């Protein structure tokens, strides 16, 4: 029988691609393309012997080019592309150099050409992008210096919404946590961080946006979550409102996550979490990163030397600080005057570093909360 399409080479490419996917019974595959089993086997055998030349009309031209990529390697590239359909030529080559370094793999451009010839490259959608603001990433010179956290935009999993909590190490891009929650609630979010702290230790900073439960409207933007971090010796760090590019590394991971696990989402939370777990393993242990010179996050990341303990020590201050404990009503007393700070800090010690008579800088742990002024009887927030 004849091929259905007048563009025979295109149809043959698709036929070979579907055969490599092994998603159809061979008889069904031939039926889909309107050819006999005999014709199908003939094309497959030619492809095994000659690679992509098998789909082209016979001619008197040379059947072999000394610089052509061997069929065996082309087939391996195609198999790997089907395994990681979201990866481009550069990432595929990095993976091969890491895992199959005994072979001499072609250049990125050649791999791209091979994938294009087999219809495995989608045209890019170009869009204007804001150049990422990298501060304070210039100071992020080791694992666990800065972690980033956020909730990936919610989406429905069945009827309820799923809010994926994601935590990454900025230096290595290691995805520490990817956990689907029913909402951005404090307790469940703390459980996610506790899981990371127990397994990987504590970072120096945690960088987030200004949404709940990461930041509040009161002094120091404190929340129960950020107070917990401070008591553990971790400094909260917040990006400017409306500037997600300041957490650019984390945002890029979110785009990759969305493509892999939420297009479309699963039908229930258990399946969705399994999808998150598979993605996290691939992202950390399989996927090379250009910013890491082709290495994988797991090749670069190391756990923190700072260990998590459930029993936290009380916050302490330098000897020259004055200490005031926060009352049940959220107030402290200083110079015989009462100042409201936050009810969230009930029972916690605050530190006051004197500036001059009647003025001091107010701290909780290492976080500056404001300037307390006894002459004006108020706290000026920073």
UniProtKB/TrEMBL annotation:
<dbReference type="GO" id="GO:0003676">
    <property type="term" value="F:nucleic acid binding"/>
</dbReference>
<dbReference type="Pfam" id="PF13683">
    <property type="entry name" value="rve_3"/>
</dbReference>
<feature type="domain" description="Integrase catalytic">
    <location>
        <begin position="139"/>
        <end position="305"/>
    </location>
</feature>
<dbReference type="InterPro" id="IPR012337">
    <property type="entry name" value="RNaseH-like_sf"/>
</dbReference>
<dbReference type="InterPro" id="IPR036397">
    <property type="entry name" value="RNaseH_sf"/>
</dbReference>
<dbReference type="GO" id="GO:0015074">
    <property type="term" value="P:DNA integration"/>
</dbReference>
<dbReference type="InterPro" id="IPR001584">
    <property type="entry name" value="Integrase_cat-core"/>
</dbReference>
<protein>
    <submittedName>
        <fullName>Transposase (ISmav2)</fullName>
    </submittedName>
</protein>
<dbReference type="Pfam" id="PF13565">
    <property type="entry name" value="HTH_32"/>
</dbReference>
<dbReference type="InterPro" id="IPR009057">
    <property type="entry name" value="Homeodomain-like_sf"/>
</dbReference>
